[in-house]
Structure formats: C-alpha cells, structure tokens
Design goal:
Elements (H helix, E strand, L loop, with lengths): L20 H52 L3 H4 L19 E7 L6 H9 L8 E7 L4 H15 L5 E5 L6 H10 L9 E4 L5 E2 L3 H11 L3 E10 L6 H25 L9 E4 H6 L10 H11 L3 E12 L5 H28 L5 H36 L7 H15 L10 H24 L16 H14 L9 H7 L2 H20 L5 H15 L8
Parallel strand pairs: 1-2, 1-4, 2-3, 6-8
Antiparallel strand pairs: 4-7, 5-8, 6-7
Helix pairs in contact: 1-7, 1-11, 1-12, 3-4, 10-11, 10-13, 11-13, 11-16, 13-17, 16-17
C-alpha cells in the first residue's frame, strides 16, 4: 500500500520549514522577492520618478510664466481691444448687445433665490437681457418654489423665463443645449452661464462683454470664483487652496500664453456663434464645459481669463458631496482625453506648440499624471520600498521635488500657508479617489458617465447652527444619529489604506533607516479621518 502512494520530492533546504500560515507566507516571499518583487518595484520607482519630474517641470514652467505675466505682461485691456459700453441718451439701449443668462439647476432648494436674484440684479438694460432658468428638478415642491420666484421677478419687469424639460437627458449639457434652441434666443449674441450657487456682481456683464464685442476672434471670457463659505470647516479651506492655485496660476498662464484654458462651466460669457461653430453642447462626458472649450479652441477661437472679474460661489461642505464632485472632475477630463486626443493631433487649424500644450500640459500632466503620481508614489510605492529595502528611492525624488511642488502649489492662498502640511496629507488621501476616477475615465467603464449634482447648503448651515443653539437654551434634546448614518460615512478603501500604511510605518519604526514612519503615521491618521468621514466636521 505504501509503495502505491505517489511520492513528492521536497528540497532539503525547506524540508524543515514549519508549515504554519506565517511560515508559508515567508517561504513564498523569500522565493519571489529577488527575482520578481525587487525588479518590479524598481521599475515602479523609475516610472514614479519620471512622472514626478514631469509634474515638477510643469509646475516650474507655470511658476516662471506666472511671474513673468505679473511683472511684464500687458493687462487684458492692453493686450486686446477694449472699449466700455456706455449709456447713450440718444441711442438708448440699442448700442448694448442682447445677452442671454442661463441658470441651470437641479433641486436647488437652498440656493435658487441667490442665483436668480443676482442675475436679475445685473446692470444691463432690461430690454437687452434675457434670463433663462433651466430647471431639471425632480422634486415638485422645489420646482414650484423656483417657478414662483421667476414669476415674482417677472412681475417687476425682468425678462425671465422658467424652462423645464420632460427628462434630464444630457444632464447640464442637455439643459444648456435645449435652452439655446428657444426661438427668443435667436437674437442673442452672447450667453452668460451661472450655476445655482453663483452670485455675479452687478457690473459683471459690463466688464466682460466689451472684450467679446471688440474682439471678434474671442469666444469666451472666464471669471474667477470666490468662495463665501471657505472658512466653514477644514474641508472647505483645503478646497480653497487647490482651487486658488488653479485660478491664480493654471488659468492665468493658459490665457496669457495660448489664449486657451478649460472653461469652468460657470461664471463665464460665451459668444453663441462660437458655441454653434464648435458643434454645440455635447453630453458624451461629464465635463461638457471642457469638451466645448477644447473643440472651440481647435477651431481657432481665443479665450480670456479675467482674474479681477469675480463671482461668489459655494464650496461643498460635506465629504460626500466633495467626493462626488471630485469623481466627476477627475473622470470626465480623462474620458475626454481618450475621446479627443487623435482629433487634436489631426487638427490643422492650430499650431504644433498649442497641440503640445493641450495634449501634454493641459491633459496628460495636469489631468492624469498629477493624480496618479500623488497616489501611486506616496501611498503605494514609497511605503512598499520600506518592506523591500533592496529598492532605493533617491532623496531628491522622495523629499526635495515633492517639497518644491508643494510650495509652488501653495502660492494661490497665502493666508492658509499654516495648513500646508495637512493639505499635503489630505491631497494624498483624495488622490486615491481621483486616481480611481481617472482610470474609470481612461478605460471608460463603470461610473464613467455618473453625474451627481454637487449638494449646496446655502444658508442652511447657519440656520442649523442657530437651531442647535436655540435647542440648547430651551433644553430640547436633539435626535441622536442612527447607526446607519455612521455606516454611510464609512469609506472602506481609505480605511484599508490606513491599515496598510500603519503596518508599513510600524515596520519602518522597527527596522527602517529613513524615518519614513513619521510621514506614514501622519498619513495613516489622515486616511482614518477621511475613512470615517469626519473631515467635513473639523472646523
């Protein structure tokens, strides 16, 4: 019987290994480490260093250009023809072009009055202004409230129209496209677009329109966003730092050097003829604004960013809303890059260097590399090198270049410089979410076309605080949060990475030589805060 049993030859070097789970894992690790893990990790390090250098050169280039722009570039009024449109007693309002104002909204219960009121308060002749409220709300109560508000302003002599659709096909792009089809829009030359939480100043059109009226090659004038709730909590302060760099540097550099940048989807004025020539609004991605901007630019139209023309708006103040917004802002550009890269290459109306700028700088480095390098290098590859000491990461790649990039990124918001270190940790955490969204966009699968409208709270936050204070004074007990609410806040992927980084930090503390454990433990804490969904509650 014994002779009939098959015999397995086990090498003598491992015959005495204790076959418990830990021993088996160590055995497998020792077998594959040198021939497989070390070479793969070395390749990953080289790729990450290359991407770091690409991002570093991009940030350095924009830093140099923005300094030159601020010191030596002519102001927009000097670079382009500019003549303010004056009121004329004899001509009346006929020297003012007819402007359409579009306000797309979806269940905007908290802020609809803000945007409608601001649009109706624009300093522009009433007979030369058409306001269009594009309401895709699914809540009948909200729809009634918005319609009533429009009727209230119409009774005051404002030319405002309440527009609804039978379905939400195309989301925002579909609503804007449908709005331009109306017969009363045919005599409009320009269209100003404001999201439901935006509050343009009364002189907004008087400052923006002259650039379009005096420069027939110009398609878009983009204003800067300002945030009314940036001091609400730590989450809004972090967002302000990122967006201020985008407007202060990225938009300014693109406008000054190539007369091109991505339309921000709101707080901008378009020439309607340029929209039509570019093919109109398309809903093939979740960044219809960027899609239109790229197509218009490829047809030779120029854009102008005005940093001193500002519109107040609201930042997402809950982590859930912020994550949905960041998914859309990361997935959409990557998906658009996939769809348009060859169209850009084949285009014959723009020069070679502008193509390089759009493909390499605007799309590849800023919309793809920036997210991936932050996540893969600092949250995956660098921690793994602690477990594999045979792989070396040069100090310039691990410390010096990231430090310079961070300093360059912080120039937009000097008042928050003391939050710089936590901003780095928070951006590293969010890079996981953005990288996942970027890959979804590039591979075009899963949630690639998911559109969740960013929740706006308006004055509801202040009202809630007042209600809470009143409840305390009257000894009224506020209802406790249910367990399901806690579970909804959990982000399991972030919690998983927190555990991974904690283990790497512990290993480095015991066996490491580079003292990376300090960074790893701090990064672990940040992943835990986001993982448990509490970042939006930190003031």
């Amino acid at each position: 019987m014994d002779e009939s049993q098959p015999k397995f030859l086990i090498p003598e070097s491992i015959q005495n290994v204790n076959y418990d789970v830990g021993g088996q894992i160590k055995l497998v690790w020792d077998v594959i480490k040198a021939p497989l893990i070390v070479p793969l990790l070395n390749v990953a390090v080289y790729i990450c260093l290359a991407m770091s250098l690409m991002l570093f050169m991009e940030r350095l280039y924009m830093g140099v250009v923005i300094i030159l722009v601020k010191l030596f570039w002519k102001k927009p009024e000097q670079r382009y023809k500019y003549e303010p449109i004056q009121d004329d007693v004899e001509l009346g309002s006929s020297n003012f072009p007819v402007v359409l104002v579009q306000i797309p909204m979806f269940n905007e219960k908290e802020v609809y009055k803000v945007s409608i009121g601001a649009a109706c308060g624009l300093s522009w002749p009433a007979d030369r202004l058409v306001i269009q409220v594009l309401d895709d709300s699914t809540d009948p109560v909200v729809k009634q409230m918005v319609e009533t508000e429009c009727q209230r302003w119409a009774s005051k002599g404002i030319n405002i129209t309440y527009q609804i659709r039978e379905n939400r096909t195309g989301y925002k792009a579909g609503a804007l496209k449908e709005g331009l089809k109306r017969s009363y829009v045919k005599h409009c030359e320009y269209v100003a677009i404001f999201d439901a939480d935006f509050r343009p100043e009364p002189d907004f059109l008087r400052r923006a329109i002259p650039f379009l009226a005096c420069n027939p090659e110009m398609a878009l004038v983009q204003a800067r966003w300002r945030f009314v709730n940036s001091n609400e909590c730590l989450l809004t302060r972090m967002q302000e730092m990122s967006l201020d760099y985008h407007f202060t540097v990225e938009q300014e550099v693109g406008s000054a050097t190539h007369a091109f940048f991505g339309f921000n989807g709101t707080a901008g004025v378009w020439r309607i003829a340029a929209i039509n020539e570019a093919g109109g609004w398309k809903d093939r991605t979740t960044v219809e604004d960027m899609d239109l901007a790229v197509r218009a630019s490829l047809r030779g139209w120029k854009f102008l960013y005005l940093g001193d023309l500002q519109a107040k708006s609201e930042l997402p103040s809950t982590l859930r809303a912020f994550r949905y917004q960041q998914h859309r802002w990361s997935c959409g550009p990557a998906n658009l890059f996939r769809k348009m890269v060859m169209e850009i290459v084949r285009n014959k109306k723009v020069n070679f260097w502008k193509k390089v700028y759009v493909i390499y700088s605007f799309f590849f480095v800023r919309k793809i590399i920036a997210h991936m390098i932050t996540f893969f290098f600092y949250c995956v590859v660098l921690p793994l090198t602690i477990l594999v000491p045979e792989v070396h990461v040069p100090i310039w790649g691990a410390v010096y270049i990231p430090s310079i990039i961070t300093i360059l990124n912080s120039v937009g918001t000097p008042r928050s410089i003391h939050l710089l270190f936590y901003w780095i940790l928070f951006e590293n955490v969010m890079s996981l979410h953005r990288t996942k969204a970027t890959l979804i966009g590039l591979l075009e699968y899963g949630r690639v076309n998911e559109w969740v409208v960013t929740e706006k709270l308006g004055d509801s936050v202040n009202n809630k605080n007042k209600s809470a204070d009143a409840a305390k004074k009257s000894n009224v007990k506020t209802p406790k949060k249910t367990r399901s609410k806690f579970l909804e806040r959990l982000n399991l992927l972030e919690l998983g990475f927190a555990a991974f980084l904690f283990l790497c930090g512990c290993y480095d503390f015991v066996h490491g030589k580079n003292n990376y454990f300090v960074y790893l433990f701090l990064q672990t804490i940040t992943f835990l805060i986001v993982g448990f969904g509490y970042v939006g509650t930190i003031v």
